[in-house]
Design brief:
Helix content: over 70%
Structural class: mainly alpha
Mean pLDDT: 80
Number of strands: 0
Distance between the termini: 6 Å
Radius of gyration: 19 Å
Strand content: under 5%
Number of helices: 12
Number of domains: 1
Largest sheet: none
Shape: globular
């Protein structure tokens, strides 16, 4: 990347919007915990369907605007990849993560899930046939060391289905890593706005189809579990943790690449930690603050490299 002020500004903007996307996505777990506390009978698939149902109109409107804009039509291959990425990124990864949370405590789930930046770096190195850059490797190590400090000290409990839960969340992390890596190759060709609208419309349709299949005989009973507060939290899930971060994340990938975007995604656990402290009255221990500092240092290294590259 040439050493120009415009490139440095573009990179820093990409870092900022990717960080905001990570914070938006991470707020998801807080909204879900609050929804479960309000209505213990609401299930994960129903919440996920509510999230996607409320988000879908935004993606349809933006997708229609993009379709009418006169931009070059997608090729058959590009359409196939968009459908595949909609399936991998926001249907399969989300569903596997929700299923894994049935067997694992949230702290352990986050430790496993946030292996995805390492998977993205490795996949990019494999696809592009190039070595991992030193600053990326160091940032990755700092970020995951920070996550270990943030969540590794949480109280341990006996987990009967540890292997099953771990396998599900690992599969979720790999699915999301594949999404980010492949999206990083497609977005520059078709534009982040168009890609987001189309791929998220696919994901919404898959989630709603899953809900309709699962609750085909008891839709009315399921709807009763959606209280006004759960509906409000579902709206927050749709806007704050789906529509906004999806567009920001893909715009960030377009500016800084999927590898750096994945590493900046390490800010997600920090955001979750601070929101849990603020909204759920969870205590922050010294090791958690130290882990937060390590994650922020790793992200700072990525931003610094962008300014000097």
């Amino acid at each position: 990347m040439p050493k120009t002020a415009d490139n440095a500004r573009r990179f820093l903007t990409g870092c900022l919007i990717t960080g905001l996307a990570a914070a938006g996505f991470s707020a998801k777990s807080i909204f879900i915990k609050l929804a479960y506390a309000d209505a213990s009978q609401v299930d994960a698939v129903t919440l996920l369907a509510l999230r996607m149902l409320l988000a879908l109109p935004f993606f349809l409107l933006i997708g229609l605007r993009e379709w009418r804009s006169g931009a070059k039509r997608l090729t058959g291959r590009e359409i196939s990849v968009v459908i595949l990425l909609g399936f991998l990124g926001y249907y399969l990864a989300s569903m596997l993560d929700f299923l894994g949370l049935q067997y694992l405590p949230a702290g352990l789930e986050r430790l496993i899930l946030f292996l995805y930046p390492a998977f993205v770096i490795l996949l990019n190195a494999l696809f592009d046939r190039r070595a991992i850059r030193r600053h990326q490797g160091l940032s990755l190590l700092l970020g995951y060391a920070g996550i270990l400090l943030v969540y590794g000290g949480l109280p341990r409990q006996e987990i009967p289905d540890l292997a099953l839960g771990t396998g599900l969340v690992l599969a979720s992390a790999l699915s999301f890593a594949l999404y980010l890596s492949l999206a990083g190759q497609l977005i520059p060709n078709i534009g982040s706005g168009r890609f987001t609208a189309y791929s998220m419309t696919v994901a919404c349709g898959l989630v709603l189809g899953h809900f309709a299949t699962l609750h085909a005989g008891d839709v009315q009973a399921t709807l009763v579990t959606i209280t006004p507060r759960v509906a409000l939290l579902g709206t927050a899930l749709a806007l704050v943790s789906t529509v906004m971060p999806a567009f920001l994340m893909n715009a960030g990938i377009q500016r800084i690449g999927s590898g750096s975007a994945a590493i900046i995604g390490s800010l997600g656990p920090v955001s979750t930690l601070l929101l849990a402290w603020w909204l759920l009255d969870e205590r922050l221990e010294p090791l958690q603050w130290l882990g937060t500092a390590a994650i922020l240092t790793g992200v700072w290294m990525i931003g610094r490299e962008g300014r000097t590259a």
